[in-house]
Design brief:
The chain is built from five helices and eight strands. Helix 4 packs across helix 5. By secondary structure, the chain is an alpha+beta fold. The chain is globular and about 50 Å long. The chain starts with a strand and ends with a helix.
């Protein structure tokens, strides 16, 4: 079984990748013997994803994937964007979600989740795959499934927020799921 390393220690992300990367052994930063510093100093999702993946690749010299994802809220000039995880510092997502709800009151509520997966192959060459899902900011949090901004991300075709659907339904349309499917498609093509 081939191994793919993921430049993350986020257990939820690791589980999501494991579910979709059937046939691969998925390892993460938690499986490393050493601690490595990963800087996210890019201004785009692509730059951050490549930066994270390269940090791990430079240690292992094995295939590595990483993702950078976030929410873009149109009424907030596409913020928090690449700063989604770090936006508002150590505040809880309940506080962050309420801040977004407050920011869009009386404004356009459109938003999107964006995910870019960077894959560094055996030769150290970077490839990126982008997935997006369009939605709206809900007027209040709904649901307890998922994490982060899911309780306020209303997905019109499901007529509810992403925190209010099963992981299976979420993965079928999610930004990470879309980017991961593009990556898997490309990986299969390259291995043929």
């Amino acid at each position: 079984m081939k191994t793919i390393w993921i430049a993350t220690s986020n257990a939820h992300k690791v589980e999501e990748f494991k579910e979709m990367l059937v046939g691969y052994e998925v390892k993460s930063l938690k499986d490393l013997d050493q601690k490595i510093e990963i800087e996210e100093n890019g201004t785009t999702f692509e730059e951050n994803a490549i930066c994270k993946a390269m940090s791990l690749y430079n240690v292992l010299h094995e295939p590595v994937i990483s993702d950078d994802s976030g929410i873009e809220v149109d009424a907030m000039d596409k913020k928090p964007g690449v700063y989604s995880a770090r936006w508002m510092g150590d505040q809880t997502y309940e506080v962050k979600n309420q801040a977004i709800i407050d920011n869009v009151k009386g404004k356009v509520r459109t938003a999107r989740y964006v995910c870019v997966i960077a894959y560094i192959d055996e030769q150290g060459e970077a490839h990126t795959y982008r997935g997006e899902v369009e939605g709206e900011i809900n007027s209040h949090p709904v649901g307890t499934n998922g994490f982060g901004y899911d309780p306020i991300f209303y997905y019109p075709p499901y007529q509810t927020t992403l925190a209010n659907v099963s992981d299976e339904k979420k993965n079928a349309i999610s930004h990470r799921g879309k980017a991961l499917r593009l990556f898997i498609e490309d990986l299969k093509e390259k291995e043929l």
